[in-house]
TrEMBL record:
This is LysR family transcriptional regulator. The keyword S-adenosyl-L-methionine does not apply. Residues 3-60 form the HTH lysR-type domain. The keyword Transcription applies. PROSITE patterns: HTH_LYSR. The lineage of its organism: Bacteria, Pseudomonadati, Pseudomonadota, Gammaproteobacteria, Enterobacterales. Transmembrane segments: none annotated. GO terms for cellular component: cytosol. InterPro entries: HTH-type_LysR_regulators, LysR_HTH_N, WH-like_DNA-bd_sf, WH_DNA-bd_sf. Keywords: DNA-binding, Transcription, Transcription regulation. The gene is ybhD_1. Belongs to the LysR transcriptional regulatory family.
Length: 129
């Protein structure tokens, strides 16, 4: 059984808005597209997630159980993407350290500290004077 993250987001937004029309607007999709997405999700799970009336939708017992899990899944996914993108922006460039031979021992501590913090990003260029 495969559910796209977009279906989980649609489920959460619908649960929070209690209206297919309002949720569709928030998702920037049509109301029939949202209805199909939720219906497909319910069919795949073999369980009804929402009670529908002409005025609003409410969560079933199964929907209430799924909601916190869906929120956590979306949160974790968004955090993961943020962290991956942040890694790319954070670790850029190169550090070049030059020192005279007598200062080498003190600079070694700095190099060891840096390697411990960012071992995958360490590039060393040694310049002797």
């Amino acid at each position: 059984m495969k559910h796209e993250l977009s279906s989980m987001k649609a489920f959460v937004i619908l649960a929070e808005s209690s209206s297919f029309n309002n949720a569709a607007k928030l998702l920037n999709i049509t109301q029939p597209a949202l209805t199909r997405r939720i219906k497909k999700m319910e069919e795949d799970l073999h369980i009804q997630l929402f009670e529908r009336t002409t005025r609003k939708v409410t969560l079933t017992k199964a929907g209430k159980r799924l909601l916190p899990e869906a929120r956590e899944l979306i949160k974790k996914f968004d955090e993961t993407l943020f962290n991956i993108r942040d890694m790319n922006a954070y670790h850029r460039g190169m550090v070049t350290l030059a020192c005279i031979p007598t200062a080498g021992n003190d600079s070694n501590l700095l190099i060891v500290f840096y390697v411990q913090i960012m071992p995958d990003d360490f590039v060393m260029q040694l310049h002797r004077f």
